Amino acid sequence: MNYQAVKAIYTFEMARFFRTLMQSFLSPVISTSLYFVVFGSAIGSRIQEVEGVSYGAFIVPGLVMLSVMTQSTSNASFGIYFPKFIGTIYELLSAPVNFLEIVVGYVGAAATKALFIGLVILATAYLFVDLTIAHPVAMIGFLLLTCLSFSLLGFIIGIWAKNFEQLQLVPLMVVTPLVFLGGSFYSISMLPPFWQNVTLFNPVVYLISGFRWSFFGTADVAIGYSLAAIAIFTLICMGFIWWIFKTGWRIRS
Amino acid sequence: MNAIVSVKDVQKTYDGGFQALKGVNLDIEEGEIIALLGPNGAGKTTLISTICGITTMTAGSITVGGVDIGTGYRKVRRMIGLVPQEIALEPFETVINTVRFSRGLFGCAPNEAYLDRILATLSLADKKHSQIRELSGGMKRRVLIAKALSHEPRVLFLDEPTAGVDVELRKDMWETVAELKRQGVTIILTTHYIEEAEAIADRVGVIRSGEILLVEPTATLMSQMGKKQLIVELAHPTDAIPDALAPYDLALSADGGKLTYTYDIKADRTGITSLLNDLQTAGLQMRDLQTRQSSLEEIFVGLVEEGAA
Q1: Is the CB of A253 inside 8 Å of chain B's CB atoms?
Q2: The domain boundary residue, chosen from B192, B223, B254
Q3: CATH code at B144?
Q4: Which of A193, B53, B201, B278 lies 20 to 30 A from A163 at CA?
Q5: What is the ipTM of this complex?
Q6: CB neighbours (10 Å) of residue B211?
Q7: Which residue of A6, A94, A250 to mutate against B (max B Cβ within 10 Å)?
Q8: Is residue B110 domain-shared with residue B192, that is, in the same domain?
Q9: Which helix (H) or strand (E) segment is B99 a member of?
Q10: Do B234 and B208 sit in the same domain of this protein?
């Protein structure tokens, strides 16, 4: 294992994050505040409690997940796409590193950034609503796993993308809708039975449900399913990345 | 011969069907500077990229320091530094951070003193904390070299290091390369500036259409392949070349004051002695004699045209 390489990639990627710390920090704070003002206070005041939790508090896990998933995907995809775009990928390809070291470096950094943003949003949420976390360890665990698995997805998108449009396409067309329709702002039990069943094909439902369980102890689907879903998703992404490096798909001619 | 890089029957066909390398064989000796000379699209960059692991080969085998580049890629790549043709650098990062990144990526523990020394050698010491985007083109190229040297490689590949670089900087670059050679680094550079190969390379490999046409010590190549010219300055200008001198295929200068005789130094007889005798017989008086050796450029053009014919 080339630990120096992992450290070098991780540090280099984090440096990009720290260069733009104010943007990285401010934008999630502002957007979360807006969500709370609009959904929590304006609309939320007219909504009854959902599953015994005030609506303002109910949307917190969904909001965190929404940001964490989109941030993980875009951070990781940008992290590996940018070297491809500016040509510095040559160095990575000619370095004594294997796919695991590259992935740990890039995905680790992207996940760290997303985790940081997730925690910032959580802290912001505390300013607006009363929140108690029923299972803090599980909450951190779910957050970490989500950051990691969506960073892996982002990494794949970054390798796949041939231009900036494609880079935006999947987060915009796939991740965001799945997250919105995955019960970020509602309990799927509020849907008609048919749509409840359809929703069960959305993998994000399991993640949000599990994450919400760690806050309030109630969930749309059993916690075991949530864990299984995130594990399967992570494994699929890892397998795909392994294949990318084995075949050199879109990176090595 | 102690070959540090050994390329055997390497072929590369790109997905589109283009065959960039057609069975290349090349042994590079430890400590030498070898220049790969060839026109655009000859396969120079493909060859370098293949040795460095950026491009996969279709057939053949390559060893570096006796280690196979496939099975022993970690060991091999630690020995190699690559300076690519295109300037590819993270624009918002500082010089020192990009160099530190490279050193780490190649598995070396941090060594600030060593990196400072490299930056000093490349006249980048005062730009250590500057962002890459603030640097001039020549400086960026030197940052690429600093990155390639950051992990103390034994073999350095320079892919057209002086393309688009002004004359002065080019000379600086040559000095840097010579200094690296003194430190024991083996250097492989590609170029289509013949004067570059002539000025710094110990050996020259000529590559065209994915094939190595020849590899020779620069001096041998010059003397073996070179045409030489004898320029005879006449004491009194002449209107025409006397018929008796026709077999020598002389060229007369416009003012009639100089005769140029081109001869092949590879030939058994250069014909100089008889020419001088015949000049005297023809009644032409000589004031001065000069000889001029053709440059590598002329040799190269000759070779490539010969190959294409």
Answers
A1: yes
A2: B223
A3: 3.40.50.300
A4: B53
A5: 0.89
A6: 16
A7: A94
A8: yes
A9: helix B95-105
A10: no
Shared domain check, B177 and B232: no
pLDDT tens track for B162-209:
877 778 878 888 888 999 999 999 999 998 777 788 889 999 998 988
Whether B25 is covered by a domain: the verdict is: yes
Cα–Cα dist A120/A60, whole Å: 12
Last residue of a domain, one of B196, B223, B250: B223
Q: Is the domain of B153 the same as that of B25?
A: yes
Question: Do B193 and B241 belong together in one domain?
Answer: no
Answer for the pair A183, A220: CB distance below 8 angstroms, yes or no: yes
* A21 touching B (Cβ < 8 Å): no
The residue in chain B having the minimum alpha-carbon distance to the alpha carbon of residue A5 is: B105
Helix (H, G, I), strand (E, B) or coil at B160: coil
What is the value of pTM for the model shown? Answer: 0.84
Residues in chain A: 253
Residue A76: strand, helix, or coil = helix
| B233: containing domain | 227-293
- Are B134 and B208 found together in one domain? yes
Residues 6+ apart with CB under 8 A from A92: A83, A102, B105
What pLDDT sits at residue A39? 79
**Sign of CA pseudo-dihedral B165, B166, B171, B176:** negative
pLDDT digits (tens, 9 = 90+) for B38-49: 888 889 999 999
